[in-house]
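Incident log, structure service

09:12 report received: a user says their structure output differs between two submissions of the same chain.
09:20 pulled the input from the user's history:
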Amino acid sequence: MEHVTTRDGARVIRLPLRLFPGLRGYAHLVVTQDALLLVDTGSGLPESNHDLVEGLKAAGDVLGRSVTLADVDAILITHGHIDHFGGLPFVRQHTRAPIYVHELDVRVLSRFEERTALATRDLAIFLQRAGVREERRRQLMEMYGFARTFYRSVPVEGVLHEGQRFAGFDILHVPGHCPGHVCLCREDVMLVGDHVLPHTSPHLSPESITRYTGLGHYLESLERLASFATGVKVALGGHERAMTDVIDRAREIRQRHMEKLQEVLDICREPRTIVEISLARYSRRHGYEVLLALTETGAHVEYLYERGYLKVANLEEVEGDPSAPILYQRIDRPLTFA
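09:34 re-ran on a clean worker, output below:
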């Protein structure tokens, strides 16, 4: 079982999980002199819950003692995405350990039904303005609502804050991929959730759907991570391999977003809807990937429009019909990246 030891002797053990079909990831068990901390809980699907229990058993083999959910002293959630917190109802059946998450994601865990209803409404508005046809919107909304079928709200006992020190970990708030995303740093080891991954550029959504997401927040968070992680030797994400080059990887992701922004500007030499821009960028997408492509494109369009690189080309039509899809067109000015 893969594990690392921090400079001050805490052990971080990776627990591999099957999250959703085609998606794997990790929870992490942190073993300190005083406590056992579980960081993230998987998706809550049966195979994910099974892997979590088996992973703890395997961690016990590493530690030379039995480890179960009942032994956990606290549960930390890196961010409010279902593949990281969906296992909470299952975990809560086996332990009363307090749950901690950043304040901007408390509502996602503890008032899930309310938050999902509002986000669903805002997503529907986004898809309409993006130019998605009615029947296709219905299909995408059904896929988006899948998590409602197996997660139920769980009370949160504690809140994580920027600059806080929790069980030896420094807390860094990094919004963008998710409003309340945090990274946890202890000495030379950092748990980065999905903020920086070695192969994947984490998905982004427009702030018109969820506040504190969006490309602007994400880029600022990448810069803050690069300053914060100067002494980090190993970074462990919620997916993919461990990283020994997290600062370089953060800079690579930043540069890739610069390239994506330029791609959008090139596509928008002629007026284009978000649907048309997305199809030009991601031509081979199916199922839920279509929704991910549309919202990622929406995040880039939103960033460019808010900073004066795009204009609305069909303003009169939009004024006459608020439900009309918006056509975006490039404004001829060079792209700069503050």
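09:41 both user submissions now match this output. Likely a transient worker issue. Closing.
09:42 reviewer note: The first strand starts at residue 3 and ends at 5. The chain has two domains: 3-110+153-257, 119-145+263-330.
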